[in-house]
Amino acid sequence: MATLLHLDSSALPQGSASREVTAAFRKAWEEQHPDGTVVHRDLAADPLPHLDAAAITAEFTDPADRTEEQRAGSARRHALADELERADAVLIGAPMYNFTIPSTLKAWLDHVLITGRTMGVENLPNAGTPVTVVASRGGSYAPGTPREDFEFVTTYLEKVLGAGLGMEVDFIVPELTLARAVPAMAGLIDKADASRAQADADAAAKGKALAARLTA
């Protein structure tokens, strides 16, 4: 049986495009693989603490000499790394906040990026693990748009997850999600609706295909 690690990071519990699209992916995954396991971590509802000095220095301190705070910080990081390594596939909801990812998702990344374990080693433990990122955004930052060079979600996650952890990264990008809420964007509603419909379709197709691939 395959395990899907599902991370949501939108601050909005309702009306979140990234949450709705990750839900479509997960629904298709579960329908294709009802005996599989889904581990859901809501980084907004249950945020991780930011990486602090104790958690950082613990990795460079002999275990016998660590303080209580260092032991706790190290234990949290390695538990999260264990959870990531047990996953056969990963699903991440990553809405764009101020041109980049939510700080809750950045905190998770800071914990699981452990030099000498998950990165910076010859045999990366997460190498080849497929990760699907739902990178929603209120506007459009696609190539050729005026704000193309303000896009620091897919560009960042491609490097961190792909180059850093060696994972197989795939993106679903629902854009223009604010078109119905911002009067100045009213002329973009049709494009927004088309982008969302495509994202939902892609999520369902990718969730089904990935579950089938991993259980073949």
Secondary structure elements and pairings:
Blueprint (H helix, E strand, L loop, with lengths): L2 E6 L8 H16 L4 E6 L10 H6 L9 H19 L2 E5 L9 H10 L17 E5 L19 H11 L3 E5 L16 H27 L1
Helix pairs in contact: 1-6
Descriptive notes:
- With 216 residues, this protein is an alpha/beta fold.
- It has a single domain (3-215), classed as Rossmann fold (3-Layer(aba) Sandwich).
- The protein contains 6 helices and 5 strands; from the N terminus they run E-H-E-H-H-E-H-E-H-E-H.
- The protein has a 5-stranded parallel beta sheet, sandwiched between helices.
- Helix 1 (17-32) packs parallel to helix 6.
- The longest helix is centred in the C-terminal third of the chain and has 27 residues, at 189-215.
- It is globular and about 65 Å long.
- The model has no long low-confidence stretch (mean pLDDT 97).
